[in-house]
Structure formats: structure tokens, C-alpha cells
Amino acid sequence: MFEVAELGHKLSGKEYDKKVPDLRAQLLMMQESLKQADFPVIVLLSGGDGAGKGEMLNRLNEWLDPRYMRAFAFDEPSEGERQRPLFWRYWRALPARGRIGLFVGSWYSHPIGLRMEDKLDDGGLDASLQRVNNFERELVADGALILKFWLHLSRDEQKKRLQKLESDPATAWRVSEQDRQHLKTWDKYRKVAERTLRETSTAEAPWIIVESTDRHYRDICIGQHILEAVQRRLHQASTAAVAAPAMPPSLHLPERPRTLLNHLDLSVHLSKKTYEEELEHWQGRLNVLTREAASKKISSVLVLEGWDAAGKGGLIRRMVPALDARHYQIIPIAAPTDEERAHHYLWRFWRHVPRAGKITIYDRSWYGRVLVERVEGFATPAEWMRAYGEINDFEEQLQEQGAVLMKYWLHIDPDEQLKRFREREAIPYKQYKITEEDYRNRERWPAYEQAVNDMVERTSTEFAPWTLIEANDKRYARIKAIKAWCEALEKRLGKGE
């Protein structure tokens, strides 16, 4: 799984100066070709202190066109980053297709640092590295080219470099107390590094170990590796037989397939008087609970899915009067923009993950990948089938961060939907809500119903269960949904049984 560059190899200054102009020219031409490609390039620079990660980042910044490349040097997380799942800041920094992202201090720094401080044992480190593997596997499955370079230095060479930096007043600031401590714990660091490399050098994203004693050799070696890997990938893309993705085969579903949704009692209802009394009670309860959650830095993430005209917007309008306007945001999800299509499909949802104590309400969500994209053929079967695991992993990270995650499916029957469509057409200020596509989607009701059933079965987990809402009666649906959120908050705050 490892690719090891020639250890101990050196390059004279003369040889280096001779190679650099041609390498730079080829890298720039590669970037020009990459602009039109359907994949991003992610370059990680990792390794021990003094190995020159920052120098290498500066070199690549110098050699590459900055218009099509961004560099990130992650340090200790900010307050806003600490209040979100760990990978939030990495998702936000991912490059778009056709672009290059350079990372120093990447998603490897955190687990290695915790293990060095004995805040993780080997089992905890392995669990963290498995999350890294899952992350990289998702990116590669979506097309990303990940190049991981481990810059290697011996203990003696590292000590020599740190002493040289400290001896010069102009560079002494670059040596931190952490660097000195790492040198004292070299043997432990070596074991942690070896374990990290062993557990995360995968077939889809192997580590390339680069001897960094000689900076000339290091620079040329890494630059050449990047050039050849991207060129190879571009060549594969240009020569592969590109066939239009086949539409999913006809499912031959019955008129009403047997699903979990069939078992919902859509006849349930509330009288207007009962509804008004219940709404006042649960809105008041929600107000108290969300304020207490905010004071205790507990966030909420709400996902609203359901049939067209099932009442998602009406439900949101009954929730927000109970909320502090400073604490929530509503994210309406439509067809992805060009920028969003240039990234992994989860990228646009990670961007809006709330800080601790805040609330994000998604009006439609990441489940579009396994619903509309599946049924309409916008995603290949391989893409939407692997999305179940990717979504579960995403939601597990939200839950681990302490968020209250509510997932609602608002269910109505075809007759009720048609009735609501007709009502929208008759009311001027609601006519914008109805389109020809809404009617066309009704023709594929059985396929959508089967997709919903699969979605609920595969993503209703212990940490993120679905709440199925009988929504033929809007009053009943609103009360059930608000009550369910209140009960989840009470449980999280330790107020329930």
C-alpha cells in the first residue's frame, strides 16, 4: 500500500535548477487541462516536525497557478470549528472539480496529536483513522484524486534542523515548545506515525513516503509525483469509453407497492379547537426547550422530507414563531448550483451545519440523492446505493457532536395531493408553488414510494431515526412533528424518562 521514494537520494543545486523550469511548465500545462476535468485533486502534505511541509506548500504555491488552486494550513480549530463536527472545516475546504487543493495539517493531525497526548489509546486512534478512511473513500468514490505525501526525516536530521532554526534569530520563532516536546518523544511519535500510515494507506488513497533530508530532492520528487498522477488520471478519462449513464431498469412495481408507508393511518385528524390548544401548548414548550438547549450549547438539525404539497412549508411556519430568530436558519434545497455540482453532493449540506446551540432546518436535504436523483436517473445506481452509508456516517458525526437530529417524512396519499394541487391553482398567492413537474412526478408515485421505503429502512438508525408523519390532516401533522422535537430535546436535556 505504500509507495516509497528513494531514501537517501540527493539532488545538487545545479541539477535542481536544471529540472525546475521544465517541471513548472508541465505543471502549468497540466492545470490548464485539469480545468475541464470532472474530478478534483487533493494533495496532503504530512510528516514530522522540520520535514519541510510549510516549505513544500510554499514551493507548490510558487509553481502552480493560484487561480485554479487553493492552499490550506490547518492549525488548532477556532471556536466556531470546535462547535461543529470535526470534519466540518475539511468539507468546507474541499476543492471543486477541475481544481487542486493543497492541505498541510489535514484530517490526520487531530488524531495523531490526541494519541501523542495520550487522550486516545490505540483503539481510539484506530477508530478515528477509520473515520478518515471513510471520508477519503467517499471522496474517491465521487471521483477525487487524493495524493498523500508523508515527508520523512530521521530523528538526528530533525534535531539538526531544529537546532539550526533556533540558532538564527530570524528563524527561531518557527520552533515551538511542541516541536521540542515531539523531539523528546520521537520513539512514541514514530510508532504512532507508522500505525497511522499502516491503517490509512489504502488502495484508493495510498501514502507516498518522501525522503526529505535534501530539500531539492523533496521538491522535485513531490512535484513530479503530482504531475504524473494527474496526467495519468487525465489520460484515463480521455481514453475511457464514455457511455451515457443508463436509466435504471423499469422496476415493474405494483400500483401500490407494499411499504412501511402503507401502514400509516392517514385518517387521523384533530379538530380545529383541539389543534389550536395543542399548538399553543407545544409552541410554548418548544420555546422553553430551545432556549435551554441554546444555553447549554446543544444544536438541532431538522430534516423535512415528504411528498409535494405534503405541508413542509406550513410545518416550518408553525415552528419558527416558537424560536429565537437569532438562533435558527432555514435552508431551502433546490436543484444544485454550478458551484454545488462541482463538489461532492454532501458538500453543500456540510456548509450549513449549525454551531453549538443553534438550529438549522433543511427544507429537503441530502436525501435527494436516494429519492429524486435515484428515481429520475440523475444519479447512477452505484452512486445512490453507496449514498446510504455516506449519509449514515454524516449523521453519526452530527450526533457525536451532540446535535439533536430530527428527520421527518410527511406522508399523504395521491388523492390528498391532487386535492392540494387544485387548491394551489385556485389561490393566486399559492399558484407559484405548482408546476408541470409536480403533476409529472405523480406518474412515478410507486417508484418514489419504493425509494422512500428503502431510504427509511437503510437510514433509520439508532442515532438518527426517522419520524413518519401522517399528513393528510395538516393539523395532526404539525402537532405530531413539533411534539416529537420537544420530546427529543427533553431527552437530550435529561428531562424525560
Q: Work out the strand percent.
A: 5-15%
Could you tell me the mean pLDDT? 90
Distance between the termini: 50 Å
Q: Please tally the β strands and state the result.
A: 11
CATH topology of the largest domain, which one?
A: Rossmann fold
Tags for this entry?
497 residues; Polyphosphate:AMP phosphotransferase; Rossmann fold; 5-stranded parallel sheet; 20 helices; alpha/beta; 6-stranded parallel sheet; 11 strands
Please describe what this structure looks like.
The strands form 2 sheets. The chain has a 6-stranded parallel sheet with strand order 1-6-5-2-4-3, with helices on both faces. It has a 5-stranded parallel sheet with strand order 8-9-7-10-11, with helices on both faces. It is of the alpha/beta class and 497 residues long. Helix 1 packs parallel to helix 10 (215-239). It has 2 domains: 3-239, Rossmann fold; 260-492, Rossmann fold. The chain is elongated. It has helices at 13-34, 53-63, 79-82, 88-93, 109-116, 122-141, 155-167, 177-184, 186-200, 215-239, 272-295, 312-319, 338-341, 347-350, 372-375, 381-400, 414-426, 436-442, 445-459, 474-492; strands at 3-4, 41-47, 69-73, 100-104, 145-152, 207-211, 300-306, 328-332, 359-363, 404-411, 466-470. One of its GO terms (biological process) is polyphosphate metabolic process. Residues 11-234, 270-492 form the Polyphosphate kinase-2-related domain. InterPro entries: P-loop_NTPase (IPR027417), PolyP_AMP_Tfrase (IPR022489), PPK2-related (IPR022488). This is Polyphosphate:AMP phosphotransferase. One of its GO terms (molecular function) is polyphosphate:AMP phosphotransferase activity.
